[in-house]
Predict the structure.
Amino acid sequence: MGLNWYAYIGGTAGDPTLARNYSRIVHGKPGCVFGAFVCAIYSLGGMITPYSPLTPNIQTYIANGLANLVPEPQLPVGSKPYVYMKPSS
C-alpha cells in the first residue's frame, strides 16, 4: 500500500516510535497540527498500521516534533509535514 495518515493511539508504554501504536485514518487528514504530543504520522503502511519498523526519517521527525512542538519536517521551508502534533494526549 502507499502513504497514509496514521493516528497515534498510544499503547506499548506510550512509545510513538513503534508502528503498532498507530491506526490508519480512513478519511482525510488528522485534525491536529501543533502541540507537545504526537498526533499522527504520514507513512508507508497497510490497511490498519504503518509498516514496522517506522523509517529512520519518520523516527527523526517524531523526535524533532516532540522537541520543537511543531509539525515535522520544518526544513526545507514548505516541506510536507509527515508528523503532526497535538496539545494533549
User: Anything to note?
Assistant: The chain has one helix and four strands. The mean pLDDT is 94. Strands lie at 3-8, 22-24, 37-44, 83-86. The helical segments are 56-68.
